[in-house]
Amino acid sequence: MMIMISERVRSIYPSLTLGITAKAKELKRRGVDVTNLGAGEPDFPTSNNIKEAAKRAIDNNFTYYTPTSGIEELREAIAEKLRRFNNVKYEPQEIVLSCGGKHSLYNIMQVLLNPGDETLLPIPYWVSYLEQVKLAGGRPVLIPAGEDGRINIDAMRGSVTEKTRMVILNTPSNPDGKVLSRRELEAVADLALEHGLWIVSDEVYEAFVYDGLEHVSIASLSEEVKGRTVISNSFSKTYSMTGWRIGYTAGPVEVTSAIGRLQDHMTSNPTSISQIAALEALRGPQDFVERMVQEFSNRRRLMVSRLSDMENIECEIPQGAFYTFPKIKVPGLSSTDFAERLLNEAKVAVIPGLAFGKDGYLRLSYATSIQEIDKGMDRMENFCRRLH
């Protein structure tokens, strides 16, 4: 019997990042000593106070449905955090909780895009943006970076058509760790206001900014910009809560209300227990986050130092997130071939830059121990020495 899969699903590609991570885990399960530098999640355990709050929620029978958009107390706490940390004011009804940041972004695309609408997507981009735009019937318009590797406002401006509906920003960036400056954000905001575009601002790595740089939320630039911005965020990275699946969206009430209606028929509420854990994450001690960021900064410098000394590799120091994005300096060697060979021959898992729209590069995560980084760098150094 022929099974017909819908066109919308046949048009999307599997996640290269998840695929390589799964392959590395399977090799480890079979006893192979694999160093995984592809992971997109902190290696720190969730803080004890957050776990204890979840246990209390279970003991207190907080295990039933909540309002689709999340409990009021958590939405109030997120509004408080947005005012304090992001310098932007939202009311609780302008915030909706979701089953992780990826779900938040999916909701945004579904609510704001119609078939044929175009979305400006700067390269390199997180892999799921592309597919989520396509799932909403939209068309991604890829914007190459400037010569300095940063966002190219001129190319973005030249790509705007009557069908352009949205621009997606991710700062700090996955995969290259770049942090958009206030001046760059102002240029994007001016463009969006001029053409009536939505700005989708994915700020999931906002806590991970190094060397005295500032994370600026584009919605904080002005009330006019805020009115065209939808923020997506989650607790996964900042609080090492990837498996808890709890994220949120902040934006105009017309958008968040529409997302709530959509969620009514998709997931209903995010997990009740995770909502209580997220509330504790926001209102409890923050020293755990500070220690994690400092440790990542130390690991970042170690990894960049090791990569910079390797043959056939060139690497800039990232400004944020927890990834490096080195360039392969072997002519004709694709990022996919490099990553496959590195895994098979040296037992090191990394993500090919092709997954992020930029072949010839690799994404390596330093969200792992110093010992694993050193081991992975030793193996990769020997591998790169043999490349021609």
Describe the 3D structure.
With 388 residues, the chain is α/β, with parallel strands linked by helices. It has 2 domains: 7-46 and 287-385, Aspartate Aminotransferase, domain 1, CATH 3.90.1150; 48-283, Type I PLP-dependent aspartate aminotransferase-like (Major domain) (Aspartate Aminotransferase, domain 2). The chain has 14 helices and 14 strands. The strands form 4 sheets. The protein has a 7-stranded mixed β-sheet, sandwiched between helices. The chain has a 3-stranded antiparallel β-sheet with strand order 10-14-13. β6 (198-202), α9 and β7 (229-234) form a beta-alpha-beta unit. α3 (48-59) packs across α11, α4 packs parallel to α11 (272-283) and α12 (287-308) runs parallel beside α14. The longest helix is centred in the C-terminal third of the chain and has 22 residues, at 287-308.
